[in-house]
Design brief:
single chain, mainly beta, Immunoglobulin-like, 3 helices
């Protein structure tokens, strides 16, 4: 600063001497005069202010920024120590970029006591905080910015053995394994995996923002089949086989592997009915459940339906099932209080409603979905069957097992085929329009037991009959000789 001021002073004197050279003798200062000018300048009000106290200990990896803010003579220096989670985030102090966290920014304690600190990082919301104070001389104000993720979705990676199975996310979007579901909202989701000749696989997976969750399924071959026939009093109870929803009573569930299966019935206002069913090869287990009322319930239910149907149902962000025509979906075991129900269906705007649940009662949500402003280029087909768990093919392409909702079906005519071991195939031709949801309900017939034609058997053994015929022929010839 001293040298700079001296240089400016010399330049000024030279210019001044040049301007007066025409009217008087030269006034260019000699070396002694210059030294006196420089010495005199030290007493003026222009001086550099050095920090009165500088932190003696610096954290490893922490950057320091010393900024000279306007101040009065004698002002000290304080510090803002800025860190963040995650670290390595960009810091802007009063509109000036300073570097990445962690770092320290110095300020004059007598400067303007208003500061704005901004911390940003890709994939996170920008953190902004204002401070209406300066640190004391030599003092430090610590700032820790906890950044919130701005990525509200994650990824689900799905593999199966064998590969090539159909994986379905929350009853809607599908892919062939191996593959990944992208842009999946945070929270709990359900992945169903199925392929012809194997038992269906269902699991729940939790997705975190910006993360990848994995699902790996080893499918069990279904070499022999059986079925379960369920009725209940009262009817209309939801049927879960091995905790997979299959429909509501009265119901026949087919294509079940031979062996033990857990069956659960649920109806709002009644106790759940559970039973173990041992399914025989080629046979059927039949049972009827008499449901018992709940007199001191501690939870309630939410009954959900939609027009059109085939919408994915989320309760407080967790997937619970899909809406089906003529079969309102019953979400059981819901704690009393307020809950948010959201419905999603491709080609339609999301529907959201807050419901109040009372113990022992059922809250009802009947949603009329609004078509998306962008005209739909496809439709959907919702397929149910009796028995349930039939393999579904659309235009000879495997789509899953009933009940199922198939989205993104091209506009036009399609052939829906239902297949189940021990039953004749069901074939249905449907016309799908843009933005329309088409219903298919197939009733499959058992394969008739044809009897093989039988040939009446002679009461006599074959060798004996041959001998008898030979004897008759010899006797006839002997008599002719006579």
């Amino acid at each position: 600063m001293k040298s700079l001021f001296a240089l400016i002073l010399i330049i000024g004197v030279v210019l001044l001497s040049g301007s007066v050279s025409a009217v008087g003798p030269s006034m260019t200062p000699n070396e002694e005069e210059l030294d006196e000018m420089i010495t005199a300048s030290e007493g003026m009000a222009y001086r550099e202010v050095y920090p009165a106290t500088v932190p003696t200990t610096r954290s490893e990896g922490m950057a320091y920024r010393e900024e000279a803010y306007p101040t009065s003579i004698g002002g000290g220096t304080g510090y803002f120590s800025i860190s963040s989670s995650p670290s390595g985030s960009d810091v802007t102090f009063d509109g000036v970029f300073q570097g990445e966290t962690p770092l320290v920014v110095s300020v004059y304690t007598t400067g303007t006591p208003r500061h704005t600190i901004s911390v940003s990082r890709y994939g996170y919301k920008t953190w902004v905080q204002s401070y209406n104070q300066n640190p004391p001389p030599g003092g430090t104000i610590s700032v820790n910015a906890v950044l919130q993720s701005d990525i509200q979705t994650g990824t689900i990676s799905v593999t199966s053995s064998p590969s090539g199975a159909i994986a379905r996310l929350d009853g809607g979007e599908t892919l062939k394994t191996p593959g990944s579901f992208y842009s999946v909202s945070q929270g709990s989701h359900t992945v169903d995996i199925s392929t012809s000749g194997y038992q269906p696989y269902t699991t729940s997976v939790r997705v975190s923002a910006g993360g990848t969750s994995s699902v790996s399924a080893s499918l069990t071959p279904t070499q022999t089949y059986g079925s379960i026939r369920v009725t209940s009093s009262p009817s209309g109870a939801e049927v879960y086989v091995d905790e997979v929803y299959r429909g509501y009573t009265p119901l026949t569930v087919g294509s079940l592997s031979v062996g033990m299966h857990n069956v659960r019935l649920h109806l709002s206002g009644y106790q759940d009915y559970t039973v173990k069913a041992n399914v025989p090869s080629g046979g059927q287990v039949v049972f009827s459940a008499s449901l018992t009322k709940v007199y001191q319930p501690i939870t309630g239910d939410v009954i959900v339906s939609s027009v059109p149907d085939g919408a994915a149902i989320y309760l407080d962000g967790t997937y619970r099932g899909i809406t089906l025509k003529g079969n309102p979906f019953d979400i059981s075991g819901v704690a009393p209080g307020s809950h948010v129900v959201m419905l999603q269906k491709p080609g339609y705007q999301d529907y959201s409603s807050t419901v109040s649940v009372t113990a022992g009662l059922a809250a009802t949500v009947s949603a009329s979905l609004t078509a998306s402003p962008i005209p739909a280029q496809s439709g959907s087909i919702t397929v149910q069957s009796d028995p349930s768990s039939a393999d579904v093919y659309i235009d000879n392409q495997y789509k899953g097992i009933t009940p199922v909702n198939v989205d993104n079906v091209a506009v036009g005519s399609h052939v829906v085929t239902l297949k189940m071991n021990g039953y004749t195939d069901g074939t249905y031709t449907v016309q799908v329009g843009a933005g329309q949801s088409v219903q298919v309900f197939g009733t499959l017939s058992p394969v008739s037991q044809t009897t093989q034609p039988t040939t009446a058997k002679s009461p006599f053994p074959v060798p004996f009959a041959l001998c008898a015929l030979s004897a008759v022929a010899l006797l006839f010839m002997w008599r002719r000789k006579e």
